[in-house]
Amino acid sequence: MAKIKICYLNVYESHLFPLTTLLNEHNESLEIYQTKIGSVGSWCWESAICLAEYCYDHMFNQFKNKRIVEIGSGTGVVGVQLCALGGNVTLTDREEYLELINYNIKKNQQVLTGQAQAKTLFWGDELNENDDCFQNLDFVIVANCVYHSIELDELIKTICNLCPENSQTCLLCCYELRSDGIRRLVNEFHQKLIEKKFSIQYIENKDFREKYQNDYNAIVKCQR
Ligand SMILES: C[S@@+](CC[C@H](N)C(=O)[O-])C[C@H]1O[C@@H](n2cnc3c(N)ncnc32)[C@H](O)[C@@H]1O
């Protein structure tokens, strides 16, 4: 499939505005910068913040020294949070987003307790077998990446490559189910995951912070 190149993102300081609700494992603040220009990955999606805060509230000790890959990272909000809880995280997206992800890693370097790096990973592309960071993962993070039917099979392929059958890799996904179209697409995504032998567990939204307890934020934990 042809790779669609979205508008190139320059991280100009004057276009940036920070999100500062997140904390590291020593309760020091993180600053995730978003941009006013660019496309869907340029700002932090609500359910991504909901997932980041859910991980802080309910999975605080589960990321320390763990091997984590985030796909479709955008600003890197979830990946940076997990790195601030001690995880070793590779944050990935289209090449256009690496500058923004690297900016957020650099801005938070002092409060990150794990290792963070940014890499290009285009869904559907083969993983570089020599690249150790994509092997033997504890967690794979997919925040708000199910919004485009034409990319679903490529997304599933990348997830399956990162989470081999019978591995212990935990796949954490979040969505904003704001329309019937997105609900249908997420159902289709889950059906495809089930065909690939994933089990899917919905997190009850009473476990989300109160402001995210609505009818559209959703988090699932999957295992293959
Ligand atoms: C809706 S944004 C979500 C960003 C971030 N995860 C969040 O929730 O705030 C979806 C992200 O997926 C990335 N993406 C879309 N299609 C992609 C592809 N084919 N390969 C790699 N990344 C892709 C976009 O660049 C964007 O950053």
From TrEMBL:
Pfam name, any one: Methyltransf_16
Domain of life assignment: Eukaryota
InterPro entries per the UniProt record, alphabetical: Methyltransf_16, SAM-dependent_MTases_sf
Gene Ontology terms: cellular component: cytosol; protein-containing complex
The protein's name: Uncharacterized protein
Organism: Rotaria sordida
